[in-house]
Amino acid sequence: MKNKTTILYRPVNDKELDLIKKLDYRGFPPRLPEQPFFYPVMNEEYATQITRDWNVRTYGVGFVTKFQVDTAYLEKFEIQNVGGPIHNELWVPANELEAFNKHIVGKIEVIREFRKQDDEKGNS
Q1: Does the structure show a pLDDT above 80 at 97?
Q2: Is residue 90 domain-resident?
Q3: Residue-wise pLDDT tens digits, 58-76
């Protein structure tokens, strides 16, 4: 019998996506020292909102990734709501990320891409 999985999403910038590619789309790179948590989100709408409103504005490009994780493993993490009804995420301690990656089932997929428009000049 196949283990049950939960679909999660992660908004990433181009640098993080390059690191995911180096891991053959099978895991997320280690967190930086100033990043104590890894934050996968529970729905595509929230991941898209972060990508458009944060990653594109900050980096000029953003990607929404989708992946599956063994549901039984995820039960150790409480779902955190950080705003409105769609703003649910998990707070995975940075030192747990290697174990988290081992519970990803299949590959991480890029399902959406957003870029700043070339003609977007701003108001000055």
Answers
A1: yes
A2: yes
A3: 999 999 999 999 999 999 9
124 belongs to a structural domain: no
| Pick from 41, 88, 31, 89: nearest CA to 66 | 41
Are the C-beta atoms of residues 13 and 55 closer than 8 Å to each other?
yes
For residue 79, the enclosing domain spans 5-115
CA–CA dist 121, 124 (Å, integer): 8
- Reading the block at residue 36, the tokens are 């104590």
User: Is residue 123 situated within a structural domain?
Assistant: no
Does residue 106 come out as left (phi exceeding 0), alpha (psi in the -120 to 50 range) or beta?
A: left
Q: How far is CA 84 from CA 35, 49, 97, in A?
A: 23, 12, 26
Identify the pLDDT of residue 111: 98
Number of domains in the chain: 1
Query: Is 122 within the bounds of a domain?
Result: no
| The pLDDT of residue 117 | 78
Instruction: Give the model's pLDDT for residue 1.
Output: 57
Mean per-residue pLDDT for 28-39?
95
Radius of gyration of the chain (CA): 15
